[in-house]
């Protein structure tokens, strides 16, 4: 039997790859005949490795397999399929097995490439967010329109190969009409993922380009924070996170159970992917203070900044923009503007520690922009923000007037490197672009000549540059 969805090429390094597929319940599932994924990996005509993975019904028959010991910057061909085995016939899923193990009559194949060696000097990737598909809408064909952006990204990859694809939130809408219409149970949620990821263009893209994802609010509910759990039954949040883990987080880098933030490296370029939703507390209680990241994640992020302080460029993924800020009428309290104490801590740490070349990647706001932040008291301080949203949104988009294009932020912070004096410290950002249309952003980095050369280009849903922002943003 053939796989029902995938493969998705997930977290990939110069020596390893993580591959995701979905199977299906077999006819003898009730008598303990279970579903397994079968994988054969080839370099050219030579079989390199074979492996099985267990496709658990708890995860809607999704699962991942990892191959290690691969060659850097090398093209591999993958064949995958399904097998059904009873308890007494359970295949070894922990180690490589003698192959081939895929039934050639029902195999699904693809090709991918491992990342280049760790001393490589270039990086190219596409990122974006917010892919609204309302499957119960009989007026608009959301499916066809929502998949066009990914055809353009795939074409971009064919013309100028991408190292990876990064989706930074709202990959599906579990609440397409907010509380008026929400998908309520695990089967309904998984069906939305299956329909969304089965569309031709996004499926083609994810089957050959390493794909990384992180959730935002609509994988759960609009403007989600832990405070909302008081108003729901205990299974509401757990059900949504099980669907998210099954279809998105499984192919990300491994994390401890229940942790959804993660980090990875592409050559010399490190990435920290924040979870800005599941640990968020938007209203302080007598027990817990207001927070976007939670204590453990914030501390891990600051430690990550310290460890990678000398990396040529450091990328931080925050599903909601670190800056620029929306105006209050557009929900600024849901963004980092509503968590200024925590934002101040991060800015203070970066400035006092003298860490440079940090780039924030964000989505969420249905408007794409670029911005730079500087500090009046420290001329060496510089942060960059790239915001890309939405992949598809059939309703009116946000416009430039909905944001503070330039804004000064003032905080009481340490004013010297020895942390003895505190004073008012002023940060100011200036933004540009503010494109209110379907879009995606391509980021390119080259450190071959020493100082990083970085650019970001924004494309519309058809893969064309916008006439009112035709040139790359250099940072």
How does this model look, in words?
The chain is of the alpha+beta class and 475 residues long. It folds into two domains: 5-113, Immunoglobulin-like (Sandwich), CATH 2.60.40; 122-474, Alkaline phosphatase D (PhoD) (Purple Acid Phosphatase, chain A, domain 2), CATH 3.60.21.70. Helix content is 17%, strand content 32%. The chain is built from six helices and 22 strands. It has helices spanning 142-159, 186-198, 200-206, 234-247, 295-307, 340-353, and strands at residues 5-12, 17-22, 33-43, 46-54, 62-67, 75-86, 108-113, 122-128, 164-167, 176-179, 211-213, 262-266, 269-273, 314-317, 358-362, 368-375, 378-387, 406-414, 422-435, 439-446, 453-460, 473-474. The strands form four sheets. An eight-stranded mixed β-sheet has the order 12-13-14-15-17-16-19-18. A six-stranded mixed β-sheet has the order 11-9-8-20-21-22, with no helix packed on it. A four-stranded antiparallel β-sheet has the order 4-3-6-7, with no helix packed on it. Helix 1 (142-159) packs parallel to helix 3. The longest helix has 18 residues, at 142-159. The radius of gyration is 22 Å and the shape is globular. The model has no long low-confidence stretch (mean pLDDT 95).
């Amino acid at each position: 039997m053939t796989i029902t969805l995938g493969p998705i090429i997930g977290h990939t390094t110069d020596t390893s790859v993580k591959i995701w597929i979905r199977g299906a319940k077999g006819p003898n599932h009730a008598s303990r005949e279970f579903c397994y994924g079968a994988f054969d990996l080839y370099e050219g005509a030579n079989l390199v490795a074979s492996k099985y993975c267990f496709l658990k019904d708890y995860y809607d028959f999704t699962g991942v397999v990892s191959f290690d010991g691969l060659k850097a910057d090398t093209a591999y061909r993958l064949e995958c399929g399904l097998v059904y085995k009873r308890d007494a016939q359970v295949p070894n899923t922990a180690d490589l097995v003698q192959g081939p193990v895929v039934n050639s009559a029902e195999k699904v194949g693809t090709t991918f490439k491992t990342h280049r060696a760790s001393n490589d000097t270039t990086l190219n990737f596409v990122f974006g967010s917010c892919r609204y598909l309302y499957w119960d809408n009989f007026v608009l064909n959301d499916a066809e329109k929502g998949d066009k952006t990914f055809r353009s990204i795939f074409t971009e990859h064919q013309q100028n190969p991408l190292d990876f694809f990064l989706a930074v939130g709202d990959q599906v809408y579990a609440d397409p009409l907010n509380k008026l219409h929400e998908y309520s149970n695990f089967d309904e949620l998984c069906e939305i993922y299956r329909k969304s990821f089965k569309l031709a263009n996004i499926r083609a893209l994810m089957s050959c380009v390493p794909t990384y994802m992180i959730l935002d609010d609509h994988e759960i509910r609009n403007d989600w924070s832990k405070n909302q759990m008081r108003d729901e039954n205990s299974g509401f949040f757990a059900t949504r996170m099980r669907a998210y883990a099954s279809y998105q987080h499984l192919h990300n880098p491994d994390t401890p159970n229940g942790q959804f933030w993660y980090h990875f490296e592409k050559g010399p370029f490190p990435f920290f992917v924040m979870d800005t939703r599941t640990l968020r507390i938007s209203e302080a209680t007598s027990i817990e203070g207001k927070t976007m990241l939670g204590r453990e994640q914030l501390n891990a992020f600051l430690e990550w900044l310290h460890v990678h302080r000398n990396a040529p460029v450091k990328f931080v993924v925050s599903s909601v923009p670190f800056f620029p800020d929306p105006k209050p009428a557009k929900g600024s309290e849901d963004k980092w503007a509503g968590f200024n104490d925590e934002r101040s801590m991060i800015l203070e740490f970066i400035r006092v520690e003298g860490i440079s070349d940090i780039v924030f990647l964000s989505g969420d706001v249905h408007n794409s922009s670029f911005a730079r932040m500087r500090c009046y008291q420290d001329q060496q301080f510089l942060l960059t923000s790239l915001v890309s949203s939405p992949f598809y949104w059939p309703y009116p988009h946000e416009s430039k007037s909905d944001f503070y294009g330039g804004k000064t932020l003032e905080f009481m912070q340490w004013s010297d490197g020895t942390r003895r004096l505190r004073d008012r410290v002023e940060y100011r950002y200036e933004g540009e672009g503010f494109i209110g249309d379907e879009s995606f952003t391509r980021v390119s980095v080259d450190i071959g000549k020493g100082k990083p050369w970085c650019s970001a280009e924004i494309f519309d849903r058809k893969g064309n540059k916008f006439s009112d922002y035709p040139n790359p943003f250099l940072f």
